[in-house]
Amino acid sequence: xxxxxxxxxxxxxxxxxxxxxxxxxxxxxxxxxxxxxxxxxxxxxxxxxxxxxxxxxxxxxxxxxxxxxxxxxxxxxxxxxxxxxxxxxxxxxxxxxxxxxxxxxxxxxxxxxxxxxxxxxxxxxxxxxxxxxxxxxxxxxxxxxxxxxxxxxxxxxxxxxxxxxxxxxxxxxxxxxxxxxxxxxxxxxxxxxxxxxxxxxxxxxxxxxxxxxxxxxxxxxxxxxxxxxxxxxxxxxxxxxxxxxxxxxxxxxxxxxxxxxxxxxxxxxxxxxxxxxxxxxxxxxxxxxxxxxxxxxxxxxxxxxxxxxxxxxxxxxxxxxxxxxxxxxxxxxxxxxxxxxxxxxxxxxxxxxxxxxxxxxxxxxxxxxxxxxxxxxxxxxxxxxxxxxxxxxxxxxxxxxxxxxxxxxxxxxxxxxxxxxxxxxxxxxxxxxxxxxxxxxxxxx
Length: 445
What we know:
Elements: H1 2-32, H2 38-70, H3 75-110, H4 116-124, H5 127-142, H6 146-168, H7 176-197, H8 210-234, H9 236-244, H10 247-283, H11 287-323, H12 332-338, H13 341-357, H14 361-386, H15 388-411, H16 418-444
């Protein structure tokens, strides 16, 4: 009963965190595109993209190792592990700080975004604070305190959203520079909240143990690399559009990208549920069950993403008009091309998840690097030919190539049939229809 309560509670707060973050971010985006110009918004998108890459890479470097070694240890050992993690986080943060100061101006010139250098420097001043904020968030997960994690998360997103809302209501004017400082303020608030919430878990030693430094470093370096390249791949369209065209085109791409982020919610949720089951079946050497799980979970994903794909194809014009306004209607063709990711992403995600589950993570890592390399080449080529839409063509084609390769590799180890995944999706529609008929029948009687 206690175990069931844990899963319900942690699942509730985790989903709440994702849901609230997504909702505040999406509404904040809808307001912000109506406050600042498309060119300024494109520069802001570049900053947010760079910040996201830094955060994801830093989290990968610290998070998995700290959680893995922290759980189940006595308080003395936990303190030593925390101390090593803080040292590594600090060293990485100093490196990031220096890189930003060295590359801010060249990067702004490369991406045709003059205002980017100034707001990157502004962001750099909050990096020392984020050493502890990152550590605190990981510590909450390692201590299974998902309620604290939820409140620490919204203590950043909610104040920042309120700033955008008040600016939209004309309480004050909002520039790129002031927006960057407000973001720093939101980070500071979140850091204070997280520090308060982990005070009972937080414990350091005066001296760092080389043993734990080396152990955490070697564990984290692979996750750091994979996360960094994965985020760079996802951001290729924005960087190439900025470098080859202008920040305005970056703003257009981001508008469509915001819509496509909705696909990630069901895909990531189902993937997180299927992984432990697939790993368990593989441990039992039940290859048939692994294949069945792949087809079943992929069918669940497709049942949710296919209607989304059709909706985007038919109503792309009205979607862009609603969320961003007439200034962003050039993003309509981009969205229609990107909508095909709703059909491809489930295959990409699950093939990666199941390669990890059957102890073949090396293939997954190689394919992440591969997608980045040929994705960059294809996107650059198509942008030269067709402009804004070229970024969408490059991304969709590169992920499709990756899906073909990963599924070919996966089929060598487990028995899977792609047609069976589509059959599972169709069965899900039939089940939903039958369930709806039953419920309507009960109400009528």
